[in-house]
Write a structure and sequence with these properties.
By secondary structure, the protein is mainly beta. The protein has one domain. It is built from 2 helices and 5 strands, in the order E-E-E-H-H-E-E. It has a 5-stranded mixed sheet.
C-alpha cells in the first residue's frame, strides 16, 4: 500500500511578518521563513520535507491559493489536475 503524502500549507503570518509552513491536519509548525522567496526557491521546501516529501499548498500574502507543489516530483499523483 502506498504511503500517503504529508499535506502542508505555506501561509503569511501578519503578526510576525514571515512565512509559516504548517502541517494541514495538526497545524504543527514545520518551519518559518523570513520571505516567501526564501521558502519557495533554491530547494528550501524540498530540503525541509526531507526524503519522505509531501504536498505543499502555497498561498498569497492575502490568503488566496497560488499553487501546489509535490516533493519529490515522482510522488505527484498521475491523475492530478495540477
Amino acid at each position: 500500500m502506498a504511503q500517503k503524502l504529508r499535506k502542508l500549507t505555506l501561509t503569511f503570518d501578519e503578526k510576525k511578518e514571515n512565512w509559516k509552513l504548517r502541517e494541514d491536519k495538526s497545524k504543527k509548525l514545520v518551519k518559518s521563513f523570513p520571505t516567501k522567496t526564501l521558502a519557495t526557491q533554491g530547494g528550501s521546501l524540498k530540503k525541509t520535507l526531507g526524503k519522505n516529501g509531501g504536498s505543499v499548498k502555497i498561498q498569497t500574502k492575502e490568503g488566496d491559493f497560488q499553487e501546489e507543489r509535490t516533493y519529490p516530483k515522482s510522488k505527484d499523483p498521475i491523475n492530478s489536475k495540477g
